[in-house]
Amino acid sequence: MELSLFLFIVCSVPVSHQYLLPDHVAPSHYQLRLMYDVDPNTNYSFYGVADIQISTKKATSKIILHAQNYMISEDKVSVVGQKDVPKVTGVKLNDTYNFLEITLDKDLEENKNYTLIIPFYGNLMRELDGVYISAYKDKKNGKTEYLIATQFQPISARKGFPCFDEPMFKSTFSLVLGHSKEYTAVSNMPLATSSLDNALEDYWPWDVVGKKFRKELSSFVWDEFDKSVPMSSYLVAFVVSKYSYKSAPNTSNTKFRIWARSDAIEQTSYASEVGPAVLSHFERWFNVSFPLPKQDMVAIPDFVAEGMENWGLVTYEDAALLYHDRESSLSDKERIASLIAHELAHQWFGNLVTMKSWSDLWLNEGFATFVASLGVNAIEPSWHADINNAVENTLTVFNLDVLESSHPVSVPLEDPTAITEIFDDISYSKGATLIRMMEMFLGEEAFREALHNYLIKYSYSNAEQDDLWSELNAVVMNKGALNNNMTVKQVMDTWTKQTGFPLVTVNRNYSDKSVNISQKRYVWRQEILSSQSWWIPLSIKCESGTEDPKLVWLSNEEGVLDDKHLEHGCDQNEWMLFNYNMMAPFRVNYDENNWKLLINTLTSDKYSVIPVEGRVQMLSDAFELAWNNQLDYGMTLQLASYLQREQEYLPLYTGLSGLSKISNVLKRSAEYGLFQEYVRMLITRIYQSGGLAVKNIVNGDDLNSVKIQVLSSSWACSMNVPGCEDNALEMFQQWMKTQNPDENNPIPVDLRSIVTCVGIHRGSEFHWSWSLERRNRSDVAATREHLLDSLACSRDVWILAKFLEWTLTENDELHRQESSRVISEVISSEVGYYVARDFIYNRIKDIHTAFYDQSEGITDIMKTLLGQFTTQKELDEFLSWQKRNDELLSESKMAVAQGIETARTNIQWVETMKPIFMDRLKEFIRTSSSTSF
Ligand SMILES: *[C@@H]1O[C@H](CO)[C@@H](O)[C@H](O)[C@H]1NC(C)=O
Ligand SMILES: *[C@@H]1O[C@H](CO)[C@@H](O)[C@H](O)[C@H]1NC(C)=O
Ligand SMILES: *[C@@H]1O[C@H](CO)[C@@H](O)[C@H](O)[C@H]1NC(C)=O
Ligand SMILES: *[C@@H]1O[C@H](CO)[C@@H](O)[C@H](O)[C@H]1NC(C)=O
Ligand SMILES: *[C@@H]1O[C@H](CO)[C@@H](O)[C@H](O)[C@H]1NC(C)=O
Ligand SMILES: *[C@@H]1O[C@H](CO)[C@@H](O)[C@H](O)[C@H]1NC(C)=O
Ligand SMILES: [Zn+2]
């Protein structure tokens, strides 16, 4: 699954396993018969029968499985088997862990097979997980249409039907879906047959059902799907809708179809190119073929994640699958390609081989994230997805994992509610970063061979991280890919079982060329004593180095108490650069002289002798270390000044991210003007080369160039570069004057977000309403999304207040998952912060209800809110509010803790570092303006 959330886990408490099912019985096959009425007038009622074949591992008179959110027909629950079968004496649902306990009059015998039959019924809801109802407006006839979708990961399959809802319990599934003939059903496997007879008649005769549905038997159909391969319950999926589909030209033996509402079907073309190409690339890369005869991909209007990898039926939110030739930007295209690649990578990492327990979620998500870059690389090589993603992932790790309240990659879970919380940047980005690190130090060949072996050995089964280590190690032993006598497990356990990442400190001895190196965990509060250490691959480059230098390992025992001493460093007048290829997630600090040598090169014409990743590492380290008072800000400002020359997106993005952290805490203070002056110095030149400055995108096919133009235009307007907002305003007004603005938008698509934001910011209510109308008329998800974000740019407090109200009510303006996006956008906007903060404080109860008690949305807004604080007063106010609303925040505990920690560092920076920063800034501006900066 692909989410965009941040959370954490308390890991010092002893872990209890009460929430896990006992292992007396295990399912081997589910025969599921389900019948739905997609009709608000009958409250979306449904009926079901689950026939579950189970095998007994140990004798027991109690069967425990999961069920949630529907009624069980207790008197009809039974066990069948060959002879002498126990009778059911009790059926009890315990909500604590959603246990369905079935008690029997005597023991089931050991090593025997039985079938458990459970009839159930209920009503679907407009939630975002389980089996739920989604709605959309058909733009052609204006009618609201409904559909049924599923989202079972991680623990909502139990909301769909009674099941053993843990990844370990792999089974085959056979589904029969009854539904009105106006609808089409798709599931993991191909449709086998359709029948007009009620397939549930033995338990739910039409006499009963027809009265509830208030429909004729003849208007219904029962679709039966082929039996699935063995898989975990969270991968079961189906969609019942009035959608159309487009067949993709298949490049392998897999039939590929993309589904969408009919008015958006033209927008599936790009997905239908990318999907089959990526799938067959992975088949070749893993050397393991895709086992299913078909693969469907569907766009769902109400969707909690961006995508979900259900085997054979991948689901997406609209904007993550649908691409419009004229309305979607190049970034939208990039997002779609990488999301499709991510979900298809899961067909191997996750679906074929599944983690044993959610603790090792990173084995699914880290791999899918890493492998996705390879897939995108294969289809769009000019995008350089591998390096782009590697850098983005590493920077993400630096941001979250610096917190003491972060969590290890492989994380013990004490409670099922904590599972949702680990779908975070640690599992995705840190997981992917560590996998890339392994590929780099083992070499691609050894790495691929081991992955192939791992995928074959654990096919249709489960694995934990030690299983991966041992497959990698076996190949390594064979090939000698690790030159020391260390094991993969030794190295990797230091990265996956510990929270955080190291700071490597380098002190050079310039007279004898030797180097002293030390390591310790990098956190904001340096007084925290930590005994942690890592196996760190050090890739080191000297200024004059021509060939790729050798990898040096810092073992977990080196550089901790005493420095590691390297005899041969670089020559005394040349710089030495660590982690120049960003192989591993660690920070580097140097002695002052080495920093100066690096800065000299960087600020000269020869800056590109330092590789892009090395420039990113240096920029990121320099901003962070100065933020934390471990490097002089004067040095950082000077280093960053080279960005005037930078032609590559990644370093520019990194430098501006460092500045944005400062901007965030200065933006409401008196000194902001001076800060803006500095940033203008950095970006004006690059801003003038394209984008808003020329009211156009130049080199529109070059992703690097487009991203630079978009980024620099956006910063230029917010830093008041002369002409930027005026140009945006002019373009916005031109759009407003266009005949038929919904068809003809003259603004280059990649600049639309910035232009509409400025247009609304500088405009009146009329501009806001006009933009809202464009959003409502559009059937392109990307357009709707960027217009939604722009609506938060208004300067009118009352408009923002009205906007926020929409997040609480069922309405046509917003899809459910958009509510938290709106609140977060308003919080982080200039004037919106104050309105949104009061809104959250006063209305948290309503917000909670409006989010269907889903923790994801609350988590997002808490983190965004806390990230804005710069004074102790704000934090104190929050803390007392938090006390009063503890219960509503209980599922976002960890995000709140991380948010509070971030707020504390911001507040402390303002109190202690801001005066120093302003001093250095003034000095820098004074000296550089005299030397024609
Ligand atoms: C429900 O389950 C919890 C956790 O296993 C247990 O503590 C509690 O006693 C159970 N409640 C009932 C009514 O059985
Ligand atoms: C029980 O079911 C399993 C899985 O379907 C099968 O492999 C096994 O042979 C069965 N055992 C008996 C005793 O029928
Ligand atoms: C519809 O079903 C839901 C879920 O069972 C229930 O909460 C709600 O009260 C029902 N509404 C009506 C009008 O019956
Ligand atoms: C497409 O898939 C079908 C089976 O679904 C297969 O018969 C056909 O040969 C495939 N086409 C190509 C070009 O591989
Ligand atoms: C692919 O896997 C098969 C079976 O595991 C093996 O025989 C073959 O050599 C592999 N091909 C490549 C190119 O590695
Ligand atoms: C390899 O292991 C041996 C014996 O355990 C040890 O003496 C030696 O120092 C190790 N070599 C390296 C490079 O770590
Ligand atoms: Zn995923």
Give a quick set of tags describing it.
binds 2-acetamido-2-deoxy-beta-D-glucopyranose; 5-stranded mixed beta sheet; binds zinc ion; 8-stranded mixed beta sheet
Structure commentary:
The protein has 933 residues and is of the alpha+beta class. It has 27 helices and 29 strands. The strands form eight sheets. Strands 1, 2, 4, 5, 8, 11, 13 and 14 form an eight-stranded mixed β-sheet that branches. The protein has a five-stranded mixed β-sheet with strand order 16-17-18-20-19. A four-stranded mixed β-sheet has the order 27-24-23-29. Helix 5 (361-379) crosses helix 8, helix 18 (724-737) packs across helix 19 (752-762) and helix 25 runs parallel beside helix 27. The longest helix is centred in the last third of the chain and has 38 residues, at 893-930. Bound molecules: 2-acetamido-2-deoxy-beta-D-glucopyranose (NAG) (6 copies) and zinc ion. One 2-acetamido-2-deoxy-beta-D-glucopyranose binds next to loops.
Helix content, binned percent = 40-55%
Radius of gyration (Å): 29 Å
β-strand percent reads: 15-25%
- Morphology: globular
Helical element count?
27
Give the CA-CA distance, first to last residue: 47 Å
Bound small molecules, deduplicated: 2-acetamido-2-deoxy-beta-D-glucopyranose, zinc ion
SSE-based structural type: alpha+beta
Average residue pLDDT? 93
- Please describe the biggest sheet, giving its number of strands, its sense, and whether it closes into a barrel: 8 strands, mixed
Q: Tell me the number of strands.
A: 29
* Low-pLDDT residue intervals, each spanning 5 or more residues: 4-14
